[in-house]
Specification:
Blueprint (H helix, E strand, L loop, with lengths): L2 H11 L3 H16 L3 H4 L9 H7 L9 H8 L19 E6 L10 E5 L2 H21 L8 E4 L7 E2 L5 E3 L24 H4 L4 H14 L4 E8 H24 L9 H11 L4 H12 L6 H5 L5 E5 L8 H8 L4 E2 L3 E2 L4 E4 L12 E3 L5 E7 L23 E7 L7 E13 L2 E9 L10 H17 L5 E9 L6 E8 L5 H13 L1 H6 L3 H8 L7 E5 L3 H11 L16 H9 L1 E6 L5
Helix pairs in contact: 1-6, 8-9, 8-10, 9-11, 9-13
């Protein structure tokens, strides 16, 4: 199917979106109506939407955890009902890992061989590429992509099923024929399938530099991965030039398969190329480095919305005139929305919900309410209101029913009759939480302005934890700044924090201020942590099975082990009630 036909099919699905939604739900119920999960609520193959929503309660991952655990261990049917399928009638192929952002350990999302789900997913992904190629038509000779993918962190469940990132699945096919997905990638498969993220990132850059004249685009699933790559380039450019001169990667890359494949890409010593790159990097001017090193690059593409928005300005610094294109709204559980206007910056990015990707409901959400106090009545496509926020609820082809996705979106309009939404943040987990990701990001933007006004290093990463176990409940914020701070600069930063706590707290949201005003929350604590602390969190998450391609640094920490690590990484901690 040609790109034009793909886009027309997507467009047609949005013209009578509610009818497509009803059809999608009927397909799901007709196919999985005999699953034990639906049977326990008396749901059969045919049920109208009102009856379905009345019969089946809203759910979260914990409602499926035991069932998923049994499937992962090799159990195929329900323990109480013989061979009745637990979630889906389709064969289980593997599991996708969630990002493991806040808990460090990823959740397992079952991936069933569902034909209707495959069709919807292929339409969404091919539609996404069609949108890109409409803006940047393929070129015959400049046709490679420097794509920072990491698909080697594959684990196996007790039942022998693979567990991986959703983005790794196209690269993990048992078919011996190479995936067409690999053809535009400048990096060989052994780099993508490696086991060490830092080494893979280095080799991605090395392969990209060797083929700098044929690189059309630079991509990653999330903006944070590209920031990591450019930071690595800044610190390792001399070693990269030496590797190009020698014609093989340094001994810092011990993986035999990776070394051999990269050596083949380098194709011998590249003295002139190394000299050219060295001349560019010696200037130590990294603004606009993308077009300096890759003269034919037309775009950078990654997700920049939600918690990724903090990296956008830094990415624009490296990109300069090269457009940074937005990504789509695809989750491990299902595709949600497509970005039809990828040239827009994060604050203007909107996603058209895909009526045939899942059956969608929306749980009203109000930022002014106490966190965790939410409505229980959902609305559908036809009843959402522009300007209002909702938590997304999905019923998928692959065994999740009225499942709270954990994302908060704002409806900003309609594309034909399908809602257009902007991603706001991840949903709070409980009434104990006193701020949202968005609150924390606003507070850090305030701090960033203070630091830039006095030419202090930028905030590079941050996260928060609400300590309920202290005598007086306290909010703790962990901040990492760029570079290494000498004692004098560290003391200056502490002084600035003490002087500007009010500016910081102004951004922390209404719930925090209300509880602080009631005396329910103690003094705010801000810890400056050692350089590289958040990168170590990435390594710890990967060691616990989190997929590197999908990892997002946590903003709201809920895992005590992560808190203990961050507390141990603190160089200094400043309290809002400390004197100047």
């Amino acid at each position: 199917m040609a790109d034009g036909e793909i886009l027309k099919k997507l467009e047609d699905s949005t013209k009578d979106a509610m009818a497509v939604q009803l059809q999608t739900l009927q397909i799901i119920l007709q196919r999985n109506g005999r699953s034990s999960y639906l049977k326990r609520y008396g749901v059969g193959a045919f049920l109208d939407t009102a009856s379905f929503r009345e019969a089946v309660p809203l759910s979260c991952y914990d409602d499926y955890a035991d069932c998923i655990g049994r499937m992962a261990d090799g159990g195929g049917g329900d323990d109480d009902d013989g061979d009745r399928p637990m979630l889906s009638v389709d064969p289980l192929i593997c599991f996708f890992n969630s990002s493991g952002t806040s808990s460090m350990k990823p959740k397992l999302v079952p991936y069933f061989d569902s034909p209707p789900s495959k069709a919807a997913s292929q339409l969404a992904h091919r539609g996404s590429e069609a949108v890109l190629q409409r803006l940047f038509p393929p070129r015959q000779s400049i046709n490679k992509v420097l794509w920072f993918l990491y698909a080697g962190n594959i684990t196996y469940t007790k039942g022998g099923f693979k567990a991986m990132a959703a983005s790794a699945y196209p690269l993990q096919s048992s078919n011996k024929n190479p995936s067409p997905f690999l053809s535009p990638l400048v990096s060989p498969p052994d780099v993508i399938l490696g086991s060490n993220v830092d080494q893979q990132m280095y080799c991605h850059i090395l392969c990209g530099l060797r083929n700098l004249d044929v690189i059309d685009g630079i991509r990653a699933p999330y903006a944070v991965a590209l920031i990591g790559a450019f930071v690595l380039l800044e610190s390792k450019w001399e070693q990269l030039c030496e590797d190009l001169e020698r014609g093989f990667p340094s001994l810092d890359i011990p993986d035999t398969a990776m070394r051999a494949s990269v050596t083949e890409v380098l194709a011998g010593p590249q003295l002139d190329l190394s000299k050219k790159i060295r001349t560019i990097c010696e200037g130590n001017n990294w603004c606009g480095i993308v077009s300096k090193l890759w003269p034919n690059v037309r775009y950078i593409k990654c997700v920049c919305t939600g918690s990724m928005e903090q990296y956008y300005q830094k990415l624009k610094y490296y990109a300069d005139e090269i457009p940074v294109l937005g990504g789509d709204y695809f989750a491990s559980e299902c595709c949600v929305g497509i970005n039809l206007d990828i040239m827009q910056p994060p604050q203007l990015t909107r996603f058209v919900l895909l009526p045939n990707a899942a059956y969608f409901e929306f749980l009203p959400f109000n930022l002014d309410q106490e966190i965790g106090v939410d409505a229980r009545e959902t609305v559908d496509f036809s009843s959402v209101e522009v300007g209002k926020m909702y938590e997304v609820v999905v019923t998928t082809y692959r065994g999740f029913y009225r499942y709270r996705l954990g994302d908060i979106v704002r409806v900003v309009g309609f594309h034909n009759s399908s809602p257009e939404v902007e991603f706001v943040m991840r949903a709070p987990k409980s009434t104990a939480e006193i701020l949202t990701e968005r609150d924390l990001m606003t507070a850090m933007e305030n701090l960033q302005l203070v630091l830039r006004n006095v030419k202090m290093p930028d905030v590079s990463e941050f996260a928060s934890f609400f300590d309920l176990d202290s005598n007086l409940k306290q909010l703790k914020i962990f901040v990492e700044v760029s570079g290494v701070l000498q004692d004098e600069k560290l003391q200056e930063l502490c002084w600035l924090l003490r002087r500007n706590f009010s500016s910081l707290e102004d951004g922390l949201g209404g719930v925090y201020k209300m509880r602080k005003g009631r005396g329910e929350v103690g003094p705010l604590l801000v810890s400056i942590v050692k350089p590289g602390s958040f990168n170590r969190l990435l390594q710890m998450a990967i060691e616990n099975g989190a997929p590197a391609s999908q990892y997002k640094p946590p903003k709201i920490i809920r895992n005590p082990k992560i808190v203990d690590f961050m507390v141990g990484s603190a160089l200094v901690t400043v309290s809002s009630d400390s004197s100047d």
